Amino acid sequence: MCLCGMVAVAGSLLDQGPLQHSTSVVISSQPQLPNFQETVAQVDEAFSSDWSHANLQPANRASDLLIARRLSLALTGSIPSFEEIRTLQRLPKERRITDWVDRLLSDRRYTDYLAERLARAYVGTEEGPFLVYRRRRFVKWLSSQLADNRPYDQLVRDLITVEGLWTDSPAANFLTVTIDQNGDKQPDETRLAGRITRAFLGIRIDCLQCHDDKLDQIVLGDFTHQRTGLQSDFHQLAAYFGSVQNSLTGIQDKPAQRYHFKYLDEEQEKLVEPAVPFYPQLLSQQESRR
User: Fold this and answer.
1) Taking the C-alpha atoms of 128, 130, 135 and 141 in order, what is their torsion angle to the nearest 10 degrees?
2) Cα separation of 266 and 202, whole Å?
3) Which terminus of the chain faces fewer neighbouring Cβ atoms within 10 Å, N or C?
4) Is the pTM above the cut of 0.90?
Protein backbone atom coordinates (compact mmCIF):
# COMPACT_ATOMS: atom_id res chain seq x y z
CA MET A 1 0.00 0.00 0.00
CA CYS A 2 1.12 3.53 -0.57
CA LEU A 3 -0.04 6.54 1.45
CA CYS A 4 0.62 8.92 -1.40
CA GLY A 5 -2.37 7.43 -3.21
CA MET A 6 -4.53 9.41 -0.79
CA VAL A 7 -3.46 12.66 -2.43
CA ALA A 8 -3.78 11.42 -6.01
CA VAL A 9 -7.35 12.70 -6.14
CA ALA A 10 -5.92 16.24 -6.13
CA GLY A 11 -3.48 15.64 -8.93
CA SER A 12 -5.28 16.06 -12.25
CA LEU A 13 -4.01 19.63 -12.60
CA LEU A 14 -1.19 21.25 -14.54
CA ASP A 15 -0.93 18.74 -17.37
CA GLN A 16 0.29 21.17 -20.02
CA GLY A 17 3.87 21.45 -21.19
CA PRO A 18 6.55 23.40 -19.33
CA LEU A 19 6.09 27.14 -18.97
CA GLN A 20 8.45 29.36 -20.93
CA HIS A 21 10.04 31.87 -18.56
CA SER A 22 10.46 35.37 -19.88
CA THR A 23 13.51 37.40 -18.92
CA SER A 24 12.18 40.69 -20.36
CA VAL A 25 9.02 42.72 -20.03
CA VAL A 26 7.73 41.66 -23.45
CA ILE A 27 4.32 40.09 -22.91
CA SER A 28 3.34 37.14 -25.07
CA SER A 29 0.06 37.13 -26.95
CA GLN A 30 -0.82 33.47 -26.62
CA PRO A 31 -4.51 32.88 -27.39
CA GLN A 32 -6.73 31.73 -24.57
CA LEU A 33 -8.16 28.24 -24.82
CA PRO A 34 -11.87 28.29 -25.75
CA ASN A 35 -12.85 26.18 -22.75
CA PHE A 36 -11.19 28.73 -20.46
CA GLN A 37 -13.29 31.56 -21.86
CA GLU A 38 -16.40 29.40 -21.59
CA THR A 39 -15.59 28.72 -17.94
CA VAL A 40 -15.10 32.43 -17.26
CA ALA A 41 -18.46 33.20 -18.89
CA GLN A 42 -20.19 30.55 -16.78
CA VAL A 43 -18.68 31.93 -13.57
CA ASP A 44 -19.64 35.49 -14.53
CA GLU A 45 -23.18 34.33 -15.26
CA ALA A 46 -23.42 32.56 -11.90
CA PHE A 47 -22.33 35.70 -10.05
CA SER A 48 -24.71 37.89 -12.05
CA SER A 49 -27.60 35.55 -11.32
CA ASP A 50 -26.89 35.53 -7.58
CA TRP A 51 -26.55 39.31 -7.47
CA SER A 52 -29.82 39.72 -9.35
CA HIS A 53 -31.73 37.41 -7.01
CA ALA A 54 -30.29 39.20 -3.97
CA ASN A 55 -30.95 42.68 -5.43
CA LEU A 56 -27.27 43.53 -5.17
CA GLN A 57 -25.47 46.07 -7.32
CA PRO A 58 -21.82 45.09 -7.98
CA ALA A 59 -19.13 47.71 -7.53
CA ASN A 60 -17.62 49.35 -10.58
CA ARG A 61 -14.75 47.50 -12.22
CA ALA A 62 -11.33 48.43 -10.89
CA SER A 63 -8.79 50.02 -13.22
CA ASP A 64 -6.46 47.79 -15.22
CA LEU A 65 -3.45 49.10 -13.31
CA LEU A 66 -5.05 48.35 -9.95
CA ILE A 67 -5.97 44.82 -11.07
CA ALA A 68 -2.45 44.25 -12.39
CA ARG A 69 -0.98 45.49 -9.11
CA ARG A 70 -3.16 43.15 -7.05
CA LEU A 71 -2.35 40.22 -9.33
CA SER A 72 1.37 40.90 -9.01
CA LEU A 73 1.19 41.08 -5.24
CA ALA A 74 -0.82 37.86 -5.07
CA LEU A 75 1.33 35.86 -7.50
CA THR A 76 4.85 37.24 -7.00
CA GLY A 77 4.72 39.16 -3.74
CA SER A 78 5.83 42.42 -5.41
CA ILE A 79 4.30 45.29 -7.37
CA PRO A 80 4.94 45.94 -11.09
CA SER A 81 8.04 47.92 -11.99
CA PHE A 82 7.81 51.22 -13.88
CA GLU A 83 8.93 49.47 -17.08
CA GLU A 84 6.28 46.78 -16.63
CA ILE A 85 3.58 49.41 -16.10
CA ARG A 86 4.55 51.17 -19.33
CA THR A 87 4.49 47.84 -21.20
CA LEU A 88 1.05 47.08 -19.78
CA GLN A 89 -0.28 50.47 -20.84
CA ARG A 90 0.88 49.94 -24.43
CA LEU A 91 -1.22 46.80 -24.79
CA PRO A 92 -4.74 46.91 -26.27
CA LYS A 93 -7.20 47.43 -23.43
CA GLU A 94 -9.05 44.16 -24.07
CA ARG A 95 -5.80 42.16 -23.72
CA ARG A 96 -4.15 43.84 -20.76
CA ILE A 97 -5.31 41.61 -17.91
CA THR A 98 -5.18 38.27 -19.71
CA ASP A 99 -1.71 38.99 -21.08
CA TRP A 100 -0.56 40.23 -17.70
CA VAL A 101 -1.69 37.00 -16.04
CA ASP A 102 0.10 34.99 -18.74
CA ARG A 103 3.29 36.90 -18.07
CA LEU A 104 3.11 36.49 -14.31
CA LEU A 105 2.54 32.74 -14.56
CA SER A 106 5.57 32.49 -16.88
CA ASP A 107 7.79 34.50 -14.54
CA ARG A 108 10.24 32.68 -12.26
CA ARG A 109 9.32 35.10 -9.49
CA TYR A 110 5.90 33.44 -9.42
CA THR A 111 7.25 29.92 -8.87
CA ASP A 112 9.77 31.18 -6.30
CA TYR A 113 7.04 32.98 -4.37
CA LEU A 114 4.60 30.08 -4.52
CA ALA A 115 7.35 27.63 -3.54
CA GLU A 116 8.01 29.61 -0.37
CA ARG A 117 4.30 29.68 0.47
CA LEU A 118 4.01 25.93 -0.05
CA ALA A 119 7.17 25.29 1.95
CA ARG A 120 5.63 26.99 4.96
CA ALA A 121 2.82 24.43 4.84
CA TYR A 122 5.12 21.48 4.11
CA VAL A 123 8.08 22.09 6.44
CA GLY A 124 7.25 25.24 8.39
CA THR A 125 9.58 28.18 8.94
CA GLU A 126 11.87 26.75 11.62
CA GLU A 127 15.56 26.12 10.95
CA GLY A 128 15.20 22.40 11.58
CA PRO A 129 17.87 19.91 12.69
CA PHE A 130 21.52 20.73 12.01
CA LEU A 131 23.17 19.21 8.90
CA VAL A 132 20.33 16.87 7.89
CA TYR A 133 17.89 19.61 6.88
CA ARG A 134 18.41 22.15 4.08
CA ARG A 135 15.37 24.40 3.77
CA ARG A 136 16.80 26.62 1.05
CA ARG A 137 17.54 23.63 -1.14
CA PHE A 138 14.02 22.32 -0.52
CA VAL A 139 12.40 25.61 -1.56
CA LYS A 140 14.58 25.83 -4.68
CA TRP A 141 13.54 22.30 -5.64
CA LEU A 142 9.87 23.15 -5.14
CA SER A 143 10.24 26.21 -7.36
CA SER A 144 11.83 24.12 -10.12
CA GLN A 145 9.02 21.57 -9.94
CA LEU A 146 6.44 24.34 -10.31
CA ALA A 147 8.38 25.96 -13.16
CA ASP A 148 8.39 22.62 -14.98
CA ASN A 149 4.60 22.39 -14.53
CA ARG A 150 5.00 19.16 -12.61
CA PRO A 151 1.59 17.62 -11.83
CA TYR A 152 0.75 18.14 -8.17
CA ASP A 153 0.10 14.47 -7.42
CA GLN A 154 3.59 13.59 -8.69
CA LEU A 155 5.18 16.33 -6.60
CA VAL A 156 3.43 15.13 -3.44
CA ARG A 157 4.31 11.53 -4.25
CA ASP A 158 7.98 12.53 -4.32
CA LEU A 159 7.68 14.24 -0.94
CA ILE A 160 6.10 11.22 0.73
CA THR A 161 8.06 8.38 -0.90
CA VAL A 162 11.48 10.00 -1.42
CA GLU A 163 14.68 8.13 -0.61
CA GLY A 164 18.23 9.47 -0.51
CA LEU A 165 20.21 12.33 0.96
CA TRP A 166 18.64 15.68 1.78
CA THR A 167 21.25 17.33 -0.47
CA ASP A 168 21.02 15.13 -3.57
CA SER A 169 17.27 14.49 -3.16
CA PRO A 170 15.86 17.81 -1.89
CA ALA A 171 12.39 16.32 -1.39
CA ALA A 172 13.90 14.30 1.49
CA ASN A 173 13.93 17.48 3.55
CA PHE A 174 10.18 17.04 3.95
CA LEU A 175 11.04 14.04 6.15
CA THR A 176 14.34 15.13 7.69
CA VAL A 177 12.88 18.36 9.10
CA THR A 178 11.17 16.20 11.74
CA ILE A 179 14.37 14.44 12.87
CA ASP A 180 15.18 14.73 16.59
CA GLN A 181 11.64 15.73 17.48
CA ASN A 182 11.13 12.35 19.15
CA GLY A 183 14.69 12.04 20.47
CA ASP A 184 15.83 9.04 18.43
CA LYS A 185 17.55 10.97 15.61
CA GLN A 186 15.02 9.58 13.12
CA PRO A 187 12.04 11.15 11.31
CA ASP A 188 9.12 11.65 13.68
CA GLU A 189 6.17 9.54 12.52
CA THR A 190 3.58 11.44 14.57
CA ARG A 191 4.72 14.82 13.35
CA LEU A 192 4.63 13.60 9.76
CA ALA A 193 1.10 12.24 10.24
CA GLY A 194 -0.11 15.61 11.48
CA ARG A 195 1.67 17.46 8.69
CA ILE A 196 0.38 15.40 5.77
CA THR A 197 -3.22 15.72 6.92
CA ARG A 198 -2.92 19.50 7.21
CA ALA A 199 -0.86 20.13 4.07
CA PHE A 200 -2.32 17.56 1.67
CA LEU A 201 -5.76 16.60 2.98
CA GLY A 202 -6.82 19.97 4.37
CA ILE A 203 -7.86 18.70 7.81
CA ARG A 204 -6.41 18.86 11.32
CA ILE A 205 -6.46 15.67 13.37
CA ASP A 206 -3.55 16.45 15.70
CA CYS A 207 -5.68 16.08 18.82
CA LEU A 208 -6.28 12.43 17.91
CA GLN A 209 -2.64 11.77 18.70
CA CYS A 210 -3.56 11.67 22.39
CA HIS A 211 -7.25 10.71 22.56
CA ASP A 212 -10.44 10.01 20.61
CA ASP A 213 -12.52 12.96 19.47
CA LYS A 214 -15.09 13.40 22.25
CA LEU A 215 -16.64 16.60 20.86
CA ASP A 216 -17.54 15.38 17.37
CA GLN A 217 -15.29 18.00 15.80
CA ILE A 218 -13.45 15.60 13.47
CA VAL A 219 -15.58 13.74 10.93
CA LEU A 220 -13.89 10.84 9.13
CA GLY A 221 -15.05 7.85 7.13
CA ASP A 222 -16.79 7.95 3.75
CA PHE A 223 -19.91 9.80 2.62
CA THR A 224 -21.95 6.65 3.17
CA HIS A 225 -20.47 5.94 6.59
CA GLN A 226 -19.27 9.02 8.46
CA ARG A 227 -17.93 8.71 11.97
CA THR A 228 -16.03 10.65 14.60
CA GLY A 229 -12.24 10.51 14.75
CA LEU A 230 -10.40 7.94 16.85
CA GLN A 231 -6.92 7.92 18.32
CA SER A 232 -6.18 4.91 16.16
CA ASP A 233 -6.90 6.96 13.01
CA PHE A 234 -3.96 9.23 13.73
CA HIS A 235 -1.48 6.50 14.61
CA GLN A 236 -2.49 4.27 11.72
CA LEU A 237 -1.49 7.16 9.46
CA ALA A 238 1.76 7.58 11.38
CA ALA A 239 2.44 3.87 10.87
CA TYR A 240 3.05 4.48 7.16
CA PHE A 241 6.28 6.19 8.18
CA GLY A 242 7.26 3.53 10.71
CA SER A 243 9.77 1.95 8.33
CA VAL A 244 11.49 5.22 7.40
CA GLN A 245 15.06 5.43 8.66
CA ASN A 246 17.80 8.00 8.23
CA SER A 247 21.44 6.96 7.90
CA LEU A 248 24.70 8.08 6.27
CA THR A 249 23.15 7.27 2.90
CA GLY A 250 20.05 9.32 3.64
CA ILE A 251 16.38 8.37 3.91
CA GLN A 252 15.65 4.68 3.29
CA ASP A 253 12.83 2.23 3.92
CA LYS A 254 13.58 -0.55 6.42
CA PRO A 255 10.64 -2.99 6.05
CA ALA A 256 11.58 -4.87 9.23
CA GLN A 257 11.16 -1.68 11.24
CA ARG A 258 7.54 -1.19 12.36
CA TYR A 259 5.56 1.42 14.25
CA HIS A 260 4.53 0.76 17.86
CA PHE A 261 2.43 2.93 20.16
CA LYS A 262 0.79 2.73 23.59
CA TYR A 263 -2.79 3.95 23.25
CA LEU A 264 -4.62 5.84 25.97
CA ASP A 265 -5.67 3.54 28.83
CA GLU A 266 -3.60 0.68 27.41
CA GLU A 267 -0.95 -0.98 29.58
CA GLN A 268 1.68 -1.57 26.92
CA GLU A 269 2.72 -0.66 23.40
CA LYS A 270 1.26 -2.55 20.47
CA LEU A 271 2.12 -2.94 16.82
CA VAL A 272 0.12 -0.49 14.70
CA GLU A 273 -0.70 -1.48 11.14
CA PRO A 274 -0.95 1.32 8.54
CA ALA A 275 -4.48 2.36 7.53
CA VAL A 276 -6.26 5.45 6.27
CA PRO A 277 -9.33 7.03 7.92
CA PHE A 278 -11.30 7.32 4.68
CA TYR A 279 -11.33 6.28 1.02
CA PRO A 280 -9.05 3.23 1.27
CA GLN A 281 -9.78 2.57 -2.42
CA LEU A 282 -7.37 5.40 -3.28
CA LEU A 283 -4.43 3.43 -1.91
CA SER A 284 -2.07 2.06 -4.54
CA GLN A 285 -0.32 -1.28 -4.38
CA GLN A 286 3.43 -0.77 -3.98
CA GLU A 287 6.20 -2.37 -1.99
CA SER A 288 6.81 0.69 0.16
CA ARG A 289 4.28 1.31 2.92
CA ARG A 290 4.48 4.94 1.99
Assistant:
1) -130
2) 30
3) N
4) no
